[in-house]
Write a structure and sequence with these properties.
Family (chain B): Belongs to the HNF1 homeobox family.
Structural class of chain B: mainly alpha
Number of domains of chain A: 1
Helix content of chain A: 40-55%
Shape of chain B: globular
CATH architecture of chain A: 2-Layer Sandwich
Low-confidence stretches of chain B: 52-87, 186-199, 296-379, 389-632
Strand order of the largest sheet of chain A: 1-2-4-3
Mean pLDDT of chain B: 59
Order of helices and strands of chain B: HHHHHHHHHHHHHHHHEEEHHHHHEHHHH
CATH topology of one domain in chain B: 434 Repressor (Amino-terminal Domain)
Shape of chain A: globular
CATH superfamily of chain A: Transcriptional coactivator/pterin dehydratase
Number of helices of chain B: 25
Distance between the termini of chain A: 31 Å
CATH class of one domain in chain B: Mainly Alpha
Number of strands of chain A: 4
Strand content of chain A: 15-25%
Oligomer: heterodimer
Low-confidence stretches of chain A: none
Radius of gyration of chain A: 13 Å
Mean pLDDT of chain A: 90
Radius of gyration of chain B: 27 Å
Largest sheet of chain B: 2 strands, antiparallel
CATH architecture of one domain in chain B: Orthogonal Bundle
CATH superfamily of one domain in chain B: lambda repressor-like DNA-binding domains
CATH topology of chain A: Gyrase A, domain 2
Strand content of chain B: under 5%
Main location (chain B): nucleus
Subcellular location (chain B): Nucleus
CATH class of chain A: Alpha Beta
Structural class of chain A: alpha+beta
Largest sheet of chain A: 4 strands, antiparallel
Number of strands of chain B: 4
Order of helices and strands of chain A: HEEHEEH
Keywords (chain B): Activator, DNA-binding, Homeobox, Nucleus, Transcription, Transcription regulation
Pfam family, one (chain B): HNF-1B_C
């Protein structure tokens, strides 16, 4: 298991989250998680995106909660081990942004 | 760059590549995956990974060299690429451990079942998908003879080897299923079907005609011998559809047939071969008709151990030949000639087919012309593998009675000489299978001792000489003549059908198989190793002969006449028995004759003939029609 599973402190959140929030990540109500919806041109792109994310998730050993319908992908990131946001979520979110940018 | 890939596949490919998977690694992984399908490849890759970690490789069963070595080598190469493969391997790993475990569980379960039952399953799967045994042997490292015996006869096989076989079976099933599901899409890897190790000379399995396709082709051949390209293409579609249906797959997935996919070229070749075959048969018939040959043909094939007297086999073959002349359209023939062991064509399969009535008459004339059939000239055989051999004709008897007898007798063995491994395309009902060996011993009609010889293929047994008294002929002749003349189709056909055992009746549990192979009569007169063919034959009987019901009655009446004579004959000829069997869906058992007796079975009453065959243990050939009829009267 990769490190960095500790819950983000308030300072860390203030430091890291705004970047993500700027691109559309929202905090989820009722839990310590971040959420974003992605839209793609069609299912192929959406699933290609998901595949890339999946491969990376495997590599990082940190997996998203997600939902997919045709060209839409809803992703929720949270760390189960610490019961909230951790650095892993930030990393994965960054990667997701990268991929999404390359695909759109 | 996107050749046949769907957009999604392209996306996924790009995803893979972007995830750190290099092109070379991907290609290497794919090429390694080809032989065994991606699933097994993933297993091996995982095993490679595991071995690197020092863990055992539980997923690889202990397979003999054939399977073990390639895996070992592939493991090594996988190891080399491990640095670059983890992403894909990990992905595959998610699938394969479950799959591998599942496969192992299935294999375990099969191992605990009755080996014969499983062997039957495997064999029928091989038949259904037209998989050559060679493929199994190559991938499992089993001995082919051993494998064949195990599957066909139930020869015991050690657990470890059976494990290898079942593992292949399970993997192959998945491979084939994958093939068929990918058929419509085009797949990245080569079709593993028909390829066990593509590296082995890069060879795919040899194309083989399935029985369903052959049926279609024969019907088309009867309609027209020389189809145009459009017709051929139509046949291609039809055949592929039939093959898919036979395999229980949707016809739209025809590509999954792999090496056994029917193409126009194959259809074209098939028609060309059939035309050649027919021309050759015609030629043979002409030869036998025209040229009296003084020499008695010595037995040509090594199989005929006993000396084959000249006369016996000729007339039947001649008859057949003539018949064939008459019936250019009718394809398969009983290769009585094969029986005589003359032919180098022994290996050819004979197809039992209906002989038209007109054919019989001329044949009789032929018989009376005292011409001697030419023994199979070795060099004149056409290259067509399925040529039914008329060539091993020998001198015809001089007397009509003899001829008749020969006719009858000949027709008996004439039914089937099937070289091991191939069955002639008996169009209608023949279920083509691999090693079909239907051997029918031919009782010669000579008054002298005439050996009845099965000169067919692997399961040939030599019949002991048959003693026929002269008396036999006339009495025998008359009813036969009656039958022959009145039921032209019937008698030759029935004769040819003689000694055919219904495979269905036999092909059941191991005991049955064993039983009929041990039948005393059978080795003498008929050895049927391919029950599927038999069933086809038996099916053939009713389908091919519309007159069957009539013939039955006729035959019966005809049969009854000689009844009185039969006993005499019977008494006189105690030592030889020829059995005429006309198998139907089931063979009727004529319990009366314990030994193989010449019996005309009218219809397919189930068990009689079957048991009769089985029970007969003597090499007794007698003309026993009446008795048979009486007992088997249905």
């Amino acid at each position: 298991m990769a490190g960095k599973a500790h819950r983000l402190s308030t300072e860390e959140r203030e430091q890291l989250l705004p970047n993500l929030q700027a691109v559309g990540w929202k905090e989820v109500e009722g839990r310590d998680a971040i959420f974003k919806e992605f839209h793609f041109k069609d299912f192929n792109r959406a699933f290609g995106f998901m595949t890339r994310v999946a491969l990376q998730a495997e590599k990082l050993d940190h997996h998203p909660e997600w939902f997919n319908v045709y060209n839409k992908v809803h992703i929720t990131l949270s760390t189960h081990d610490c019961g909230g946001l951790s650095e892993r979520d930030i990393n994965l979110a960054s990667f997701i942004e990268q991929v999404a940018a390359s695909l759109s | 760059m996107v050749s046949k890939l769907t957009h999604l596949q392209v996306e996924l490919l790009e995803a893979l590549l972007e995830s750190g998977l290099t092109k070379e690694t991907l290609i290497k992984a794919l090429s390694e995956a080809e032989p065994y399908g991606l699933q097994s490849e993933s297993q091996r890759a995982i095993n490679a990974l595991q071995s690197e970690k020092g863990e055992p490789c539980p997923d690889i069963p202990n397979l003999p060299n054939g399977m073990g070595e390639p895996r070992v080598s592939e493991d090594e190469t996988s190891d080399d690429g491990e640095e670059f493969t983890p992403p894909i391997m990990k992905e595959l790993e998610n699938l394969s451990p479950e799959e591998a475990a599942h496969q192992k569980a299935v294999v375990e379960r099969l191992l605990q079942e009755d080996p014969w039952r499983v062997a039957k399953m495997v064999k029928s799967y091989l038949q259904q998908h037209n998989i050559p045994q060679r493929e199994v042997v190559d991938t499992t490292g089993l001995n082919q003879s051993h494998l064949s015996q195990h599957l066909n006869k139930g020869t015991p096989m050690k657990t470890q080897k059976r494990a290898a076989l079942y593992t292949w079976y399970v993997r192959k099933q998945r491979e084939v299923a994958q093939q068929f599901t990918h058929a419509g899409q085009g797949i990245l890897t080569d079709e593993p079907m028909g390829d066990d190790l593509p590296t082995k000379k890069g060879r795919r399995n040899r194309f083989k005609w399935g029985p369903a396709s052959q049926q279609i082709l024969f019907q088309a051949y009867e309609r027209q011998k020389n189809p145009s390209k459009e017709e051929r293409e139509a046949l291609v579609e039809e055949c592929n559809r039939a093959e898919c249906i036979q395999r229980g797959v949707s016809p739209s997935q025809a590509q999954g047939l792999g090496s056994n996919l029917v193409t126009e070229v194959r259809v074209y070749n098939w028609f060309a071969n059939r035309r050649k075959e027919e021309a050759f048969r015609h030629k043979l018939a002409m030869d036998t008709f025209s040229g009296p040959q003084p020499t008695s043909a010595p037995p040509l094939t090594p199989h005929s151990s006993s000396s084959l007297q000249p006369p016996p086999a000729l007339s039947p073959s001649k008859v057949h030949g003539v018949r064939y002349n008459q019936q250019p359209a009718s394809e398969a023939e009983s290769s009585s000639s094969n029986h005589h062991g003359n032919s180098s064509m022994v290996t050819t399969q004979t197809i039992l087919q209906q002989v038209s009535p007109p054919g019989l008459e001329p044949s009789q004339n032929l018989l009376s012309t005292d011409t001697k059939l030419v023994s199979a000239p070795g060099g004149t055989l056409p290259p067509v593998s399925t040529l039914t051999a008329l060539h091993s004709l020998e001198q015809s008897p001089h007397t009509l009675s003899q001829q008749t007898q020969n006719l009858i007798m000949a027709s008996l063995p004439g039914v089937m000489a099937i070289g091991a491994g191939e069955t002639p395309s008996l169009a209608p009902a023949f279920t083509n299978t691999g090693a079909s060996t239907l051997v029918i011993g031919l009782a010669s009609t000579q008054p002298q001792s005439v050996p009845v010889i099965n000169s067919m293929g692997s399961s040939l047994t030599t019949l002991q000489p048959v003693q026929f008294s002269q008396q036999l002929h006339p009495s025998y002749q008359q009813p036969l003549m009656q039958q022959v003349q009145s039921h032209i189709n019937q008698s030759p056909f029935m004769a040819t059908m003689a000694q055919i055992q219904n495979p269905h009746a036999l092909y059941g549990p191991k005991s049955e198989v064993t039983q009929y192979t041990h039948a005393g009569l059978l080795p003498q007169t008929m050895v049927i190793t391919d029950t599927a063919n038999l069933s086809a034959l038996t099916n053939l009987t009713p389908t091919k002969q519309a007159f069957t019901p009539d013939s039955e009655t006729h035959t019966e009446s005809g049969m009854h006449t000689p009844v009185s004579q039969a006993p005499t004959i019977h008494l006189q000829n105690q030592d030889t028995t020829i059995q005429h069997l006309q198998p139907g869906p089931r063979l009727t058992s004529s319990p009366a004759v314990s030994s193989s007796s010449l019996v005309l079975y009218q219809s397919s009453d189930s068990t009689n003939s079957h048991s009769q065959l089985l029970s007969s243990t003597h090499n007794v050939i007698e003309t026993f029609i009446s008795t048979q009829m009486a007992s088997s009267t249905q």
